[in-house]
Amino acid sequence: MSAELLNRARAGDRDAFAALVEPHRAELQVHCYRMLGSLQDAEDALQDVLLSAWAGLSGFEGRSSVRTWLYRIATNRCLNMLRTSARRPMAATPLPAPPPEPSRLGDTPWLQPYPDLLLDGLPDQAPGPEARYESREAISLAFVTAVQLLPPNQRAVLLLRDVLGYRVREAADLLGLTEDAVASALKRARATMDAARSADRPPPPAGGPEERALAERFAAAFTGHDVQALVALMTDDVWVRMPPLPFEYRGTEAAHRFFTAIGAHRQGIVRMEPVRANGQPAWGQYVRDPVTGVLRFTGLLVAGLAGDRVCAITHFETTVGPYFGLPRTLA
User: Fold this and answer.
1) Which Gene3D superfamilies does the UniProt record give (predicted)?
2) What is the CATH number of the domain that holds 102?
3) Average pLDDT for 200-227
């Protein structure tokens, strides 16, 4: 950051301000997404962050980097959203058939997927020295889902310390907390996250031949309407989720019951359009309209992988389609 650029921005030069903040826009949106679990809310939060930064630029004294200053604004904006419950309601499409008894009712109705296309724009910013999570795990659906179970302060502390790698003193300064409060919140957050972390083998390399082969087998089994073949690709403790509906199914037996129950609907899916979400294979699902013959988008499916098996299947509503370039209909 040059002093000249900062002085120009303080004098009202919007181009200079854009040059200051633009390098950090993509990573700030990801941070807001991790905090809020919703891409739509993250976009709204980021706009508020940039407006606040523009309005408060005169108060920036340069004692920290612009990046750290922006993270302070972003984190506190997300905390305010979480504490005031100013969240966008998500309408849920009813299941096409009565679902079987779930393994449990989930607690993360706000979860949305994050397009890999937006991750491509992230700068090569290495985390701080105390980060505990690698970048791929920290954007996975499993990680973001687990983070949503944390209270707001624990959520912020965990992300600042274990994902971004800020030291205790730095995180305390960003949040306006004491170092003891940060250490205490982090201890509780880590305990929750450790309990939620899977003991499965790591996923195959993203975009590599092993991942592609497993994704192709999964898509073929899904569109082939073969529940046995589909379940054979799953880990014993697989999770099946469909936010914002609360029903969650764990294990191959529960997954078999679920996919059998919705078999009539699943048989209508004739095309799986591959995309990527949260660093994972994903597909836009399309059914053929019996009257017009066109293919109609019915939702996004994201697969979590562990070794050579599928450890999680998450279905999202049609509202996320535009973020992934998935049209409502295909010829």
Assistant:
1) 1.10.1740.10, 3.10.450.50, Winged helix-like DNA-binding domain superfamily/Winged helix DNA-binding domain
2) 1.10.1740.10
3) 92
